[in-house]
Design brief:
The chain is mainly β. The protein has a domain of 67 residues: RNA polymerase II/Efflux pump adaptor protein, barrel-sandwich hybrid domain (OB fold (Dihydrolipoamide Acetyltransferase, E2P), Beta Barrel), CATH 2.40.50.100. Helix content is 4%, strand content 44%. The strands form three sheets. Strands 3-10-8-5 form a four-stranded antiparallel β-sheet, with no helix packed on it. A four-stranded antiparallel β-sheet has the order 7-6-4-9, with no helix packed on it. A two-stranded antiparallel ribbon has the order 1-2.
Length: 108
Amino acid sequence: MDERKTSSRDALVVDDTPYETTFTRKFRERAVYRQADPKLVPAHIPGVIREVRVSPGDAVRWGQGLVILEAMKMQNDITAPRDGVVRAVHVRPGQMVPKGFVLLEFEE
């Protein structure tokens, strides 16, 4: 009797071309990709809020500075990912935020 594990093969399709492969456990257990909500501005790294430059109701343009987030002694300028009107600000100076924390929201 052969005691070797038989590997199950998986199918992967890239540009309409199927490939036979074996997925790793890490790949199988990965989080499902979700499109980012364009109305939310999350913290991409954990840190401390040093300055909030906008208030609810402010009209902002793409690239305008919204919040200064300090991480590892570096000041990170969080900028507007699009033109819009600020609906809500969820942070205040001195607040520590984890990665993914929603800093502010835009109106539709």
